[in-house]
């Protein structure tokens, strides 16, 4: 199961939804620094019930609204981060979260979860910038997660003791002489 944590009114349900999750998508808004901080402060604790080797994807959404800062400190008007779609010219705001901030949080999460960084996918692979509005990187996000999660689940199933009972191999218990019908 893959879980995405979002709005405040669903906080109470978060840990329930995370139970047994193979992957958790933590989503913030690239234009609101506070939304990234909240992932750590408020949402991370809800993932306690996820699988112990659960994957984490950090997703910065609303990249279509982000206005990049030019190297001289000025603003590059009309240029969305991550090439989020040239036709989208809605009013842009200076982005407040950089990809490096998300990658730092990813590494922090691995530490917090006591997961071995060497055994988990790299931060560069698990941090995305998306636009739900233009669809930018949305397919990439889910395809990446499926590519990682499906073999993981298959491996876990193969390692688990089989839940199937072979009825044919079950022997009928011998009747004893002490039985009343013998
Ligand atoms: N421009 C833009 N708007 C978006 C994007 N994703 C969601 N929105 C808009 O943001 C608003 C909130 O979206 P929701 O889907 O309710 O998401 P949420 O997790 O509750 O997000 P917030 O209320 O923004 O914290 C809606 O008006 C959406 O249309 C995006 O990628 N780009």
Automatic annotation (TrEMBL):
SUPFAM superfamilies: P-loop containing nucleoside triphosphate hydrolases (SSF52540). The keyword Membrane does not apply. Transmembrane segments: none annotated. Residues 70-92 are annotated as: Disordered. Keywords: GTP-binding, Nucleotide-binding. The keyword Transmembrane helix does not apply. Residues 70-80 have a biased composition (Basic and acidic residues). PANTHER family: PTHR47978. Belongs to the small GTPase superfamily. Rab family. This is Ras-related protein Rab-20. The gene is Rab20.
